[in-house]
Design a protein that fits this description.
Blueprint: H1 2-22, H2 26-94
Helix pairs in contact: 1-2
C-alpha cells in the first residue's frame, strides 16, 4: 500500500511539472496549483483516517486481550477453588 502512495505521489509530481509548463495564463496556473494543493490536503486526510483506523484497531486489540486475560484468570480461580474444595472433602472424609 505504501508503494502505491509513492507511485501516486510521483505521478502527481510529474503531472504538476507538466501542468506548470502547459498553461498559457496565470489564472490557469493558479487553478491547477489550487487543485493540486486541495488534492494534497485530501491525501493527508486519507492518511490521517488510516492512522485513526490503526489506532482504533490497536485499542480494540488491547481491550480484547485484557478481557481474555480476565477470563483466563477467572478460569484459574475456579480451578483452584475446585481443587481446594476437593482437598477439603478428602480431608473431611479421612476423619
Amino acid at each position: 500500500m505504501r508503494m502505491t502512495k509513492k507511485l501516486i505521489l510521483a505521478a502527481g509530481t510529474c503531472l504538476l511539472a507538466l501542468s506548470a509548463c502547459g498553461h498559457k495564463t496565470d489564472a490557469a496556473d493558479n487553478v491547477a496549483a489550487a487543485a493540486d494543493n486541495t488534492a494534497d490536503v485530501m491525501e493527508q486526510n486519507a492518511e490521517a483516517v488510516r492512522d485513526m483506523g490503526d489506532n482504533a484497531s490497536a485499542n480494540l486489540e488491547a481491550k480484547i486481550d485484557n478481557r481474555a486475560d480476565r477470563i483466563d484468570n477467572n478460569a484459574d480461580a475456579v480451578r483452584a477453588a475446585g481443587e481446594n474444595q476437593a482437598d477439603a472433602i478428602d480431608k473431611a472424609a479421612k476423619k
